[in-house]
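Q: Got one fold?
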Amino acid sequence: MTTTIPRDYKVKDVDMLITAATITESAIANKTFLQSKRSTWADPFFDDLKIQIDKAIQIHLGVDSAKKLRESTQVVYNIQNNAIKDLAEVKIQIVEDFKDTPARQSEILNQLGFTAYHKDAQKRDQEALINLLYQYKTNLTPELKTEIVDKGTAALALDNITAYADTLKTANVIQEGNKGERKVITSEAVMEFNKIYNKVITITRISSKFLKDKPALKDQFSFAKVAKTLNATKKPKPTPPTPQ
């Protein structure tokens, strides 16, 4: 009788491993600070963990290039961060610039996708962000763009968001393609995955305390937030009807 080893994590195996790999890359990038706070993380601690994750991906998931997969995931993560930041900046300007005409303010926010998708996009729902970006791109007509720019928002800020739609979609497709063929996951594989997960969770919990005064950097050590960039499982919400 086959014994089923329970997983210590709730996300997909591949998403857990790539989340772990992404967090490990962040740890390597900030290792001087982290190692100054914790001696047992001295070299080659993070590098060894990176190798362990890469081997697990290659052996148990059948991915030819763990490095390529990790890099494509990091591209998605970076694009998402920039898009969320730029969208927030544009939205607050629209809200303030059109506060004296609330009906028009509501119309613009709805038309550009903020009403339906922005809240979930800020929670790093990748599907919601892509839907928001495409609705924004489709509905930012030259006339609407001029209207918003005339109120004070920089044209370049609006153009940057338009460009994110295709860039994020392309990067996401590459990321999914790089996940490769799945192998049958054995109990041995799950045991190894659990070891990796628990090691990374320890890193995130301790690092989050070390980085409590650096919220942006702290987010890079949140397993839930990094994993969220890989999980776009929610169905998109329907666009509310345009106010008459």
In short: The CA atoms of residues 99 and 195 lie 53 Å apart. Residues 66-97 form the longest helix (32 residues).
